[in-house]
Specification:
Length: 921
């Protein structure tokens, strides 16, 4: 594709695009995608020349297939040359970047957190010289690095940084969904192919020239390489065997060409090439001070002379001329040669847990307990870093190399358990079957694997529960005492099943069974037992236990975060942990514990609904539905639909809500998945309330729990307290409403969670016969410290308060509460509730249009951030409180200022004070 003078041949359009890309003063990202050998590397080098002439500093990186499962391996290449700038970042950004270098023991930051830190680092470096970040073979970049590069690439407009990435067509990559501009690089035209061939191989005979052009089909690498090999072939009658006219992909033919050159090298040179190929040498990567030194090929001048290697002009290291050379080196080596090379590399990386394990796994043939232990440790590390898929492979290999049948069985069980949580349910079953061999599927590990598969794939709570109970009883009867990993997994699975079943009888039996196990049940399992079952009766002091458990998670597995997050949901303290859950989702959803990531997405959505971020909740739910559908986890698909239906009901989209209600109920009811049938009933309640059909709302709510009691193990019983009370009051069932509100107080709901406290006081206010008592309870609800975190419930209570005050004290006294209710419903997007509140406000003599209608409406998030900023909090402090980055806080304020008619932060307090109701929270 290039002439001897370095000019690119036949790529006029691509050169024009690249020239405009480099000249553009704004930061930009561009993907170059094409087949192997089509000339992407030449175009990348052309871009380097353009950028160097424009004063850019060029930083190179390359994806390496053998490192595609090592988190941040690729990102490290980009950031290593910028190490001197890292120290100039603030502490939070520096900590985030140091995770990439393995210098920090902190949990990996979220994509947003790390991406923001990288953006700041690039901006700092580019303030001295504009930067060109060049990535070749981007399809092999590890998932963690790809996500961060995509995040950064979409946000370069404001800084003088260019990112250009070469990608191989036909190879899936995280860049496929990165929404970055793309420049396709196709085959050369016939004329350009002839020009390139004649430039580099003048004097070819007509027959050979025609054969080369036909075989190359416009692929520049083939045009450059094939003629030399063909001319060096002594027996021209063997041309057919050289090209192999059998429809073999072009890359295979080129590997054959490289293979001949590799074989011609001496044994010592081939060994050097093999070690370099297996370790990613020559991929544009420098020595890594914290993760060991990458193999550096020496004494390979012979390989360079025959065109297999080039010399990196910056470092002077030998580099492979093309990725196909590396592939061919590996494929032409014998198994013994590859094992010897892996053994040498394992020694080189003896201080890098995961990289050493990867090489040991490939180097070892016979059972070796020491190697198996190293692989097990690497799997544990990978699981915590969001690489559960790699962990399954390492544990499977560790089982093969185990020194005893007991250790083999244990490691296969661990691999199956992680595979189940990674969404690899079929692989989990296969691992267990390979362990049992005889078809005995009753081992505890087999029950765990098959139980999760039956539950996730089809919502089978009945047969899976029978198997799990039998396995637990078998372990108990065998006399196991004290903590046991397999027993803990079975207990936690039983609790998951019973949570979804939502059946009082099975829960009571579970309590009896777990009581018989005594201290063998872990403290965290006891938290799940109390939170997931009946929080009304077992929730006292639970939120403190959840908080202590979260604090005690030093090196948590993803399922630990998920299960404690579910417990936090039941006591309405999710907001405390959302940032941690979001980081875990970012880490797990691609190559980690994707089944846990599905539940984490549910938790994030639930917290977004609770705090009034309904647009964000809708997006989270849609994304979760896509993930669950892709993995064919029917239980999670319908669980997600249930939450989307409930959100639709709250927003007044009753048609979509009832469609979701019917779909979820029809799937869940025959299977006995009571958790979902209760959400469906709650959706029906919310939809009826949104329409003002209080009779239907009462029927739905009382179907969840009768007035005056909270049905045991019905998780929606306490959550629909306000719905049942309000619908009962509105339909004239005052006695039932008062009985239910009193039952909430008697059950101690305010002590269990902040949301239950808010709605209990609201229910008591709605049902108080005495006006003074009602006012006292409304005041207690509206001034509760956590009220601002539950804006929908707070707005409903204010609407009821304003309505009662209008009838008892006159129109003027009611306006403030009604104004606040209208504004909250409008911000949330609860259209039918906003209409009802506006009607009450108008009846109270208030304006027909609120300030929200006169001004461009502040979103709920903008209002929250503006209130906190007016209170004197910095962007960083607001971000920590609301689980946002300071950059996001700044952008929200930037959008809020013109809506409020102000230009500075100092004017916020007065501007918010001019809105009806003044400032809140």
């Amino acid at each position: 594709m290039e002439s001897m003078a370095g000019a690119v041949v036949g790529r006029e359009r691509e050169q024009e695009v690249l020239a405009g890309f480099v000249r553009d003063p704004a930061g930009r990202a561009l993907l170059l995608r094409g087949d192997a050998g089509v000339g992407k590397s030449a175009l990348l080098e052309h871009t380097v020349r353009l950028a160097s002439g424009g004063g850019y500093r060029v930083i190179r990186a390359a994806g390496v297939e053998t490192e595609s499962e090592l988190p941040f391996a690729g990102l490290h290449q980009f950031l290593y040359p910028l190490l001197p700038c890292v120290e100039e970042l603030d502490e939070a950004r520096r900590r985030a970047v140091e995770v990439v270098f393995g210098r920090s023991g902190s949990a990996p930051p979220s994509v947003m957190g790390l991406g923001t830190a990288v953006l700041d680092l690039l901006a700092l470096a580019a303030s001295r010289n504009p930067l060109l970040l060049l990535l070749d073979d981007g399809q092999w970049l590890d998932a963690s690095s790809t996500q961060v590069c995509g995040f950064v690439g979409r946000r370069l407009a404001g800084i003088p940084v260019k990112l250009v990435v070469g990608l191989r067509s036909g190879v899936p990559s995280g860049f496929d969904t990165a929404a970055l501009s793309e420049l396709p690089v196709g085959p050369l035209s016939e004329a350009a192919s002839g020009q390139l061939l004649d430039t580099h191989h003048a004097g070819l005979g007509p027959r050979i020239r025609r054969l080369v052009l036909e075989e190359a089909q416009g692929n520049p690498l083939a045009l450059l390489e094939l003629p030399s090999y063909v001319r060096g072939t002594e027996r021209r009658r063997d041309l057919d065997s050289v090209f192999g006219y059998t429809g073999v992909p072009l890359s295979q033919r080129l590997q054959h060409v490289y293979g001949a050159r590799i074989v011609s090298c001496g044994a010592a040179v081939r060994a050097e090439l093999l070690r370099g190929a297996l370790d990613g040498a020559g991929a544009g990567m420098a020595a890594d001070r914290t993760r060991g030194t990458r193999y550096r090929m020496v004494d390979v001048g012979e390989a360079a002379a025959c065109g297999l290697l080039d010399v990196d002009p910056l470092r002077g290291d030998y580099v492979f001329r093309h990725p196909l050379v590396r592939s061919t080196v590996v494929q032409t080596a014998t198994p013994d040669e590859r094992r010897a090379a892996h053994g040498a590399l394992a020694h080189l990386h003896r201080d890098d847990l995961e990289r050493r394990a990867a090489h040991l796994a490939a180097a070892t043939v016979d059972p070796d307990e020491e190697v198996a232990c190293a692989l097990e440790a690497a799997a544990e590390s990978a699981t915590r870093r969001g690489g559960a898929v790699a962990a399954v492979a390492w544990l499977s290999r560790a089982a093969e190399l185990s020194g005893s049948p007991k250790e083999r069985s244990r490691r296969l069980g661990d691999a199956a358990y992680i595979a189940g949580h990674s969404g690899l349910l079929g692989q989990a079953q296969q691992l267990i079957h390979s362990e049992t061999g005889s078809g005995d599927h009753d081992s505890p590990a087999s029950v765990v694997a098959s139980g999760y598969a039956a539950l996730f794939e089809d919502g089978d709570v009945r047969s899976s529960r029978r198997q799990v109970v039998a396995a637990i009883e078998g372990i108990r009867d065998a006399g196991v005492r004290g903590p046991d990993d397999v027993l803990t997994r079975l207990v936690d699975l039983l609790l998951v099943i019973d949570q979804y079943a939502g059946d009082a009888v099975t829960w009571e039996r579970a309590h009896e069974l777990l009581a018989s196990l005594g201290d063998s049940v872990s403290s965290r399992s006891r938290i799940y037992q109390d939170a997931w079952g009946d929080v009304v009766r077992r929730g006292a002091g639970l939120h403190e236990r959840v908080e202590r458990a979260f604090t005690g998670l030093r090196r948590p597995e993803p399922w630990d975060i998920t299960r404690l997050g579910v417990a936090a949901y039941h006591v309405d303290t999710l907001s405390q942990y959302r940032q941690r859950i979001q980081r875990a989702v970012d880490r797990e959803v691609e190559t980690g514990a994707v089944a846990d990531a599905m539940t984490m997405l549910h938790l994030i959505m639930l917290d977004q609904i609770a705090v009034g971020e309904w647009d964000e909740a809708e997006r989270t739910g849609r994304y979760c539905l896509e993930v669950t559908t892709t993995h064919r986890h029917a239980l999670f698909v319908h669980h997600t639909r249930a939450y989307l239906g409930l959100l639709a009901a709250l927003r007044g989209d009753t048609g979509r809500a009832r469609e979701s209600q019917a779909t979820v109920d029809a799937w869940a009811r025959p299977r006995g998945v009571g958790f979902l049938t209760q959400i469906a009933a709650a959706t029906g309640t919310a939809a009826a309330l949104a329409e003002g059909d209080y009779e239907a709302a009462y029927l739905h709510a009382s179907g969840i729990t009768p007035p005056g009691v909270f049905t045991p193990y019905a998780h929606q019983a306490s959550r629909t307290l306000l719905d049942l009370v309000e619908s009962a009051v509105r339909t004239g069932r005052l006695e039932e409403a008062r009985r239910h509100a009193a039952a909430a107080q008697d059950a101690g709901l305010p002590r269990i969670s902040p949301r239950l406290a808010l709605i209990t006081y609201g229910a008591l206010a709605m049902t108080a016969p005495d006006t003074a008592e009602a006012h006292r309870m409304y005041h207690r609800a509206e001034t509760h410290p956590a009220a601002f975190h539950f804006p929908f419930e707070l707005a409903r209570i204010r609407l009821a308060h304003g309505t009662r005050v209008r009838h008892s004290q006159g129109r003027g006294a009611a306006r403030r509460a009604l104004l606040l209710a209208v504004e909250a419903f409008e911000r949330l997007g609860a259209s039918t509730w906003a209409d009802r509140a506006r009607a009450e406000l108008h009846a109270a003599g208030g304006p027909q249009r609120t300030a929200s209608a006169d001004l461009a409406v502040l979103t709920w998030q903008e209002r929250r951030i503006a209130d906190l900023a007016a209170g004197g909090l910095t962007n960083k402090e607001i971000g920590e409180r609301l689980h946002l980055s300071p950059r996001t806080v700044s952008s929200h304020l930037y959008r809020a200022f013109p809506k409020l008619g102000i230009t500075s932060r100092a004017a916020l307090r007065d501007a918010l004070g001019r809105l009806p109701g003044g400032r809140e929270g």
